[in-house]
Amino acid sequence: MLSCHYGPGGRAATVSGVAARGVAARRAGARLAVLLAVLGLVLGSSPARAAVGTAGLLPGQTLLAGQSISDGRDILTMQADGNLVLYARSIPVWASNTAGHGGAQLVMQADGNLVVAAPGGRPLWTAGTGGHSGSVLVMKADGDAVLDAPGHVTLWSTNTSKQTYAITQLAAHGWGPDQFGCLNNIWIRESGWNELAGNPAYAYGIPQADPGSKMAAEGSDWLTNPQTQIRWGEDYIQGRYGSPCQAWAYWQARRYYGPLLAVVPF
């Protein structure tokens, strides 16, 4: 109930009460507008744009051409050419391969599916994660972009944390960003960046050290830790070839780059 004080200026007090009711009405209207905006987001009636530079997408949000999400170092960007690309320290490490569709946008659908859609809504690429409402896209500090369902259940990932780590180690060997493409060309063929590839008694891990136990020189967790394997592999390449691109040239000529046959000075 609105309480009014009546004094000598009784009429003025009445006008004041009307003004107070007007303020209350405006506040109620503002709350209603906020509620309608939230309902619109939840129901998907009007997809909301993501805040550019934030680290994720909520249900119903979109990335338009030229917009990105970022953890501050790595960026997932919806390019103007229609390709969704993840850049680790400015180096591309993953893409949706949807270039040639200018105006495409990334949509975090309310049903949990992540979709690159052409103008008009036709899907060009999807994560295939429909049926998990409430899921969110998150750009993680380790270089992965992941789609998490409620309860922190990962439904989909770019699986790029290992490549990102390898990029962070380039400078320690005196290499520039241009060397990553050559490194990726080798290791995607040798192991697919799988730290469990092969047999520990023979060729093993991301760099396919033979035997795998050679990597113990870099750390006792060499059997399962991709970062230990990556450091060992980059050290090996530097010692034997000088750079990943020189190692890649060797690989192209012989279809292997040496860890299977080389004597490694560790």
Keywords, separated by commas or semicolons:
Agglutinin, subunit A, 5 helices, 3 domains, disordered C terminus, disordered N terminus, 13 strands, 266 residues, 19% strand, 4-stranded antiparallel β-sheet, alpha+beta, single chain
Give a description of the structure.
With 266 residues, the protein is an alpha+beta fold. The chain folds into 3 domains: 46 residues; 111 residues, Orthogonal Prism (Agglutinin, subunit A), CATH 2.90.10; 86 residues. It is built from 5 helices and 13 strands. The strands form 3 sheets. It has a 5-stranded mixed sheet, with no helix packed on it. β12 and β13 form a beta hairpin. α3 packs across α5. The protein starts with 9 loop residues before the first helix and ends in a 12-residue tail after the last helix.
Total number of distinct structural domains = 3
- Please, how many helices? 5
Assembly level: single chain
CATH class of the largest domain: Mainly Beta
Q: Tell me the number of strands.
A: 13
CATH domain topology of the largest domain: Agglutinin, subunit A
Identify the strand order in the major beta sheet. 1-3-8-9-10
Average the pLDDT over all residues and give the rounded result. Answer: 83
CATH 4th-level superfamily of the largest domain: Bulb-type lectin domain
Rg over alpha carbons: 27 Å
Strand content: 15-25%
The SS-based structural class is alpha+beta
Order of helices and strands: HEEEEEEEEEEEEEHHHH
